[in-house]
Structure formats: structure tokens, C-alpha cells
UniProtKB/TrEMBL annotation:
This is REM-1 domain-containing protein. Pfam families: HR1. Residues 8-86 form the REM-1 domain. The lineage of its organism: Eukaryota, Metazoa, Ecdysozoa, Arthropoda, Hexapoda. GO terms for biological process: signal transduction. It comes from Bracon brevicornis.
Length: 104
């Protein structure tokens, strides 16, 4: 396939793959932020309402898991962006518009 990482891809294909990876991670991050918000809302509702301890514990665990996933996704996005910037600095990777930094 044209976007397979195992193929010997051109610099412009590598740039597109990197951009797709960042977009996918950002989409996952947005979903996880919504999960976190839902868990926070559930905790708020449970603490002000009937106080089901088991449900409250599950919501708190969901919130903790979501926070960990958010932190992981933010780190992955940062690492992918840093790797792209390092490739650009070396001149062996395309800019996001597909042009190379060497002007080729």
C-alpha cells in the first residue's frame, strides 16, 4: 500500500504519514477529553446525589484512566512533532505541504 511504513517511501509520503499519525492521535485525544469530562460529570452527580459507593469508585477509576491516557496521547503527539521538526532541521523530510526543506 502507498502509506505502508515498510515500503521505501519518499520524503513527501513520510510527511503525509507523520501528518496522518498526528491527526489520529489528536482525534484520540479529543475523544479521551470527552470521556474525562463525562467521568467528572458522573462523579459530581454521584457526590451530590444518592452516593452509590461502587458507582463512584468506578467513575473515579474511569477518570484516573482517562487522565493517564490523555497524558500518554499528549506525549505521543509531542514526540511525533519533535521528530518531524528534527527531520526538517536535517533537511531530509518534507514540510507539511509536501515540499522538502532542501528546496527539491
Amino acid at each position: 500500500t502507498p502509506l505502508s511504513p515498510m515500503d521505501s517511501s519518499s520524503p513527501s509520503q513520510e510527511g503525509l504519514i507523520t501528518d496522518l499519525r498526528i491527526m489520529t492521535l489528536e482525534k484520540q485525544l479529543n475523544i479521551e477529553l470527552k470521556v474525562k469530562q463525562g467521568a467528572e460529570n458522573m462523579i459530581q452527580s454521584l457526590t451530590s446525589g444518592h452516593r452509590d459507593k461502587k458507582l463512584l469508585q468506578e467513575a473515579q477509576q474511569m477518570l484516573d484512566d482517562s487522565r493517564a491516557k490523555i497524558e500518554f496521547l499528549r506525549m505521543r503527539i509531542m514526540k511525533v512533532r519533535q521528530a518531524r521538526q528534527q527531520q526538517h532541521a536535517r533537511g531530509d523530510a518534507p514540510l507539511s505541504n509536501g515540499e522538502t526543506t532542501t528546496g527539491k
